[in-house]
């Protein structure tokens, strides 16, 4: 066993899943390492949820193999369910179930469970213990689902489109919770169609589109690999600056818009070279900012289309 | 079956929290019974033979059957709502076994069926006193057997019902006509031959025959065929339902 394999808590090899004639997941392979936040990203309908549900053991792939914590999610479902926590996309509970009743039910189903009241308090639901599920806000419902996914002290937590439909404030609060899960040594496997969420939250991401996995890596590595160009925007009154900049090694273009010059180039050291040039030629700038491509740009480039919402 | 009792108790509480649900399935039947008793008057006491036999003789059987059907319809609706709302899917992703989830719902329905029947017997005491010689325990056992068989039909309906909206009306469209030719409103023997054939394949016919017999004091041995058929219906429908059941 090599070093990578020994740390992989999830191994997915060549899975495929069709619904009738629609191929939802087509030959997808990836690994998730221990104690990382791994994100499956792509537009709605890309095959994220199907892939995740296959890994959870809720769905059976037509082809391929999956190992989670060394177990087969399909044949060893019972053993695995004790060790994972699951939050499903667009799931609901009984309208009139109380928060604490849901937590108590879930606790009773697992061999090990954490203190439900403490968990609710940590998730900011202490006041809502006796509230009916139907009276909770979207963010509160999601926090309850996180609580239910964590009740059995799981080693791997699955979060499917966790923050969809939440306002930015609730979303940030949920991100903090997810980081907290990782800091306790747990592995988080999530899906999202929000590139900002993936970029801010995930240690590694895999891009999936039309059922196919396109690339995987850290957000920074994906940006470097697919969108190596950088833009430095400087504001200067120096009339000779544009010609000076054009001599910078690796520069692609200099766009002039009045006093604002956009320098486009590529490579990790492009920004350094621009600053070097400013110093060498004693060019006075009143403003300088860099524009880096994001995962959104990576997605656009590798799939050839923007994320549909 | 880990979690069965907790889930059953929980579902009971959740059911009680929906005021209309309890009112409709438990209180309304009992109230109707009392009101009808006041209007029509006690048939037995006046020896009113002009009433149809279904009221004068088979009232307990009719009552039991109607309550069972209403329990089954409510089960069909609940399952459809749970499926559509993603509740079943969420429960399924836990160590809860499918059979546990379904059993909990059956137990809740049985509980409320029993409760309705007891309320009706108590509420109707004045107008329709239960004769002292009726073997109530035996009749209760018969109601349980019939209910389980009919509930399994409900499961099958719940498994294939396309949406929550249609689950209950479709269930009603299938179940009430079945009751119509079950022999409750007239002996099967006097029906046209085609109807008789259909009646022979309708599980309700055997439920009615069993309940009617037990109320009159027949022994269980006399109704072995009825029990066997109802058991078969239960097994076949449950098996089919677990095969075709959709979780989402």
Q: How would you portray this structure in words?
A:
The complex is a heterodimer of chains A (309) and B (248). Chain A is an alpha/beta fold. Chain A has twelve helices and 13 strands. Chain B contains twelve helices and no strands. Chain B is an all-alpha fold and 248 residues long. The radius of gyration of chain B is 19 Å and the shape is globular. Chains A and B meet through helix 4 of A and helix 1 and helix 6 of B.
Helices and strands in order, then pairings?
The complex is a heterodimer of chains A (309) and B (248).
Chain A: H1 3-7, E1 8-19, E2 22-33, E3 37-41, H2 48-56, E4 63-68, H3 77-81, E5 84-87, H4 99-109, H5 116-122, H6 138-150, E6 156-160, H7 168-183, E7 187-192, H8 195-201, E8 204-209, E9 212-217, H9 219-226, E10 229-236, H10 241-245, E11 251-257, E12 260-266, H11 270-280, E13 285-291, H12 295-303
Parallel strand pairs in A: 3-7, 3-8, 5-6, 6-7
Antiparallel strand pairs in A: 1-2, 1-4, 8-9, 10-12, 10-13, 11-12
Chain B: H1 4-17, H2 19-40, H3 43-46, H4 53-56, H5 59-84, H6 87-92, H7 98-123, H8 136-160, H9 164-180, H10 193-201, H11 203-215, H12 224-244
Helix pairs in contact in B: 1-7, 2-7, 5-7, 5-8, 5-9, 5-11, 8-11, 8-12, 11-12
The gist of it:
The complex is a heterodimer of chains A (309) and B (248). Chain A is an alpha/beta fold and 309 residues long.
- Spatial separation of the terminal alpha carbons of chain B: 22 Å
How much β-strand is present in the residues of chain A? 25-35%
What is the quaternary state of this protein?
heterodimer
DSSP strand (E) fraction of chain B?
under 5%
Q: What are the main properties of this structure?
A:
heterodimer; A: 309 residues; alpha/beta; Rossmann fold; Alpha-Beta Plaits; 2 domains; six-stranded mixed beta sheet; four-stranded antiparallel beta sheet; 13 strands; 34% helix; 29% strand; elongated; disordered N terminus; B: 248 residues; mainly alpha; 12 helices; globular
């Amino acid at each position: 066993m090599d070093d990578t394999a020994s740390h992989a808590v999830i191994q997915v090899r060549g899975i495929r899943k069709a619904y009738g004639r629609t191929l939802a997941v087509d030959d997808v392979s990836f690994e998730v390492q221990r104690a990382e936040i791994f994100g499956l990203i792509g537009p709605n309908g890309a095959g994220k949820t199907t892939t995740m549900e296959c890994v959870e053991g809720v769905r059976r792939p037509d082809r391929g193999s999956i190992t989670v914590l060394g177990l087969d999610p399909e044949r060893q479902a019972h053993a695995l369910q004790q060790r994972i926590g699951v939050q499903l996309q667009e799931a609901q509970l009984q309208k009139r179930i109380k928060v604490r009743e849901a937590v108590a039910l879930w606790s009773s189903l697992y061999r090990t469970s954490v203190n439900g009241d403490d968990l609710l308090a940590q998730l900011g639901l202490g006041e809502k213990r006796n509230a009916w599920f139907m009276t909770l806000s979207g963010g509160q419902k999601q926090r309850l689902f996180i609580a239910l996914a964590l009740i059995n002290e799981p080693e791997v937590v699955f979060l499917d489109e966790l923050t969809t439909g939440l306002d930015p404030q609730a979303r940030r609060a949920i991100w903090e919770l997810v980081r907290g899960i990782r800091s306790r040594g747990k592995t988080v496997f999530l899906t999202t169609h929000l590139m900002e969420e993936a970029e801010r939250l995930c240690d590694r991401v895999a891009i999936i589109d039309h059922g196919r996995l396109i690339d995987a890596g850290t957000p920074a590595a994906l940006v470097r690999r697919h969108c190596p160009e950088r833009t430095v925007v400087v504001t200067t009154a120096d009339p000779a600056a544009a010609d000076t900049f054009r001599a910078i090694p690796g520069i692609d273009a200099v766009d002039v818009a009045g006093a604002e010059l956009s320098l486009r180039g590529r490579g990790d050291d492009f920004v350094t070279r621009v600053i070097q040039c400013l110093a060498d030629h004693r060019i006075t700038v009143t403003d300088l900012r860099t524009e880096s491509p994001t995962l959104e740009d990576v997605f656009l480039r590798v799939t050839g289309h923007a994320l549909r919402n | 079956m880990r979690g069965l009792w907790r889930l059953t108790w929980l579902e009971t509480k959740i059911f009680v929290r929906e005021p209309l649900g309890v009112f409709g399935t438990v209180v309304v039947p009992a109230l109707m019974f009392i009101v009808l008793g006041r209007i029509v008057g006690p048939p037995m006491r006046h020896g009113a033979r002009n009433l149809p036999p279904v009221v004068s003789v088979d009232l307990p059987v009719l009552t039991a059957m109607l309550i069972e059907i209403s329990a089954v319809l409510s089960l069909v609706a609940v399952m459809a709502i749970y499926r559509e709302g993603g509740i079943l899917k969420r429960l399924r992703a836990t160590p809860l076994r499918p059979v546990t989830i379904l059993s909990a719902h059956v137990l809740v329905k049985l509980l409320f069926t029993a409760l309705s029947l007891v309320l009706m017997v108590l509420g109707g005491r004045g107008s329709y006193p239960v004769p002292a010689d009726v073997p109530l325990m035996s009749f209760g056992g018969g109601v349980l057997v019939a209910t389980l068989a009919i509930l399994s039909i409900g499961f099958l309906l719940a498994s294939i019902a396309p949406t929550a909206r249609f689950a209950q009306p479709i269930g009603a469209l299938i179940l009430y006509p079945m009751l119509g030719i079950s022999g409750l409103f007239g002996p099967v023997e006097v029906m046209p031959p085609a109807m008789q054939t259909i009646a022979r394949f309708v599980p309700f016919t055997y439920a009615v025959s069993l309940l009617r017999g037990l109320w009159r004091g027949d022994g269980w041995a006399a109704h072995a065929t009825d029990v066997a058929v109802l058991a078969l219906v239960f097994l076949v429908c449950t098996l089919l339902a677990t095969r075709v059941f959709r979780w989402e």
